[in-house]
Amino acid sequence: MRHGTRRADERDEQRAEHGEAEDHEAPAELEAALRTGPFHLALRTAIAARRLPLQRIRHHLTQRGVNVGVTSLSYWQQGARRPQRAESLRAVRALEEILQLPEESLVRLLVQPNQRADRARPAARSYRSLVEASDVLRSLLAELGSPVDGGLHTIGHHERVRIGALREMVGRESQHIVRAHRDGVDRYVAIHHGDPGCAPDRVRVRALENCRTGRVRWHQGTGVLVAELLFDARLRAGDTHLFGYGFEDGTAGPATEYMRGFTYAGGQYALQIRYDDAALPVRCHRFTQHSAAAPRGGRQELTLSGSHRSVHVVEPQVRAGILGIAWDWE
């Protein structure tokens, strides 16, 4: 008899793990709670709908590298306490995943209605703005007589972005390793897309290693700038070249993300965002997009490291599409 009871309990837990609630009214109640709040009611309703014990939830959080005690979880769902610290907010985002809730559905309930406008994250670049920038980029590249691939394949690219004390993108540096796939290649065209409001005419191009600056072109309305980086010798097909360059910006307002588009699949890419001690974000995450029109996916929370000043992502073999890091200031 005990053996049968234990197996029944295991089946119940398996159903709970997959979000199979026996109460058919729970999803409607949950939808309403998530829409109107308050936070503790939405959390309690979600836990009840998924039929997960608090101890089991704590186990799932631990697997995701988040440490929250059962007592804290109990207080949160009773309304006795509210998650406020950065680590607690990270736990709430993990709870959304564990309880199979829409992204930001619990987090948004932690912001009071009169605070939401102030704390709202600035909108990411719109699809229209990205399309306009893409059209401008093609025009600028044509002006420089540069084909899309430039005759080079990327083997490795390490990019470091610096965020200043005013939350602005101060600049970025790149260490690039390329291989020529045809003879006679003697340059690389670097692209800079500043944040909304940037002044590309005031952005400075720096040739740091094994290259020198050639022609520079920009478009004021979109903040797109392209710069030739000239090599000292012409590469033959199969030759590799290592060079470094950078852009000094600091002309736009607060930055909330940095992303890079890849036309072709290729080599390794590493992106590091470094923040000023006077302006540290409360949370960061990586994201991917198949194209500018596609929804964002591949979300993964990132932890500040290096004396709590930087985050990074590494892609051993990049795919065509977009990869980036986004962050929240409040």
Provide the fold topology.
Elements: H1 2-17, H2 26-36, H3 39-50, H4 54-63, H5 70-78, H6 86-98, H7 113-119, H8 127-143, E1 152-163, E2 169-180, E3 185-193, E4 204-209, E5 212-219, E6 224-235, E7 240-248, E8 257-262, E9 268-275, E10 283-289, E11 297-302, E12 310-315, E13 321-328
Key structural traits:
alpha+beta; Immunoglobulin-like; 8 helices; 2 domains; six-stranded mixed sheet; disordered N terminus; single chain; 29% helix; 330 residues; four-stranded antiparallel sheet
Summarize the structure.
This protein has 330 residues and is an alpha+beta fold.
CATH fold-level label of the largest domain? Immunoglobulin-like
Instruction: Give the domain tally.
Output: 2
Strand order of the largest sheet: 4-7-2-1-9-12
The overall strand count is: 13
Instruction: Give the radius of gyration.
Output: 24 Å
End-to-end C-alpha gap:
54 Å
Counting copies of identical and different chains, the oligomeric state is single chain
Mean pLDDT across all amino acids: 84
Uncertain residue segments: 1-25, 112-123
Order of helices and strands: HHHHHHHHEEEEEEEEEEEEE
Question: In DSSP terms, counting alpha (H) and pi (I) runs of 4 or more, how many helices?
Answer: 8
Alpha-beta classification = alpha+beta
**Proportion of beta-strand residues:** 25-35%
Helical content (DSSP H or I, runs of 4+)? 25-40%
Architecture of the largest domain, according to CATH? Sandwich
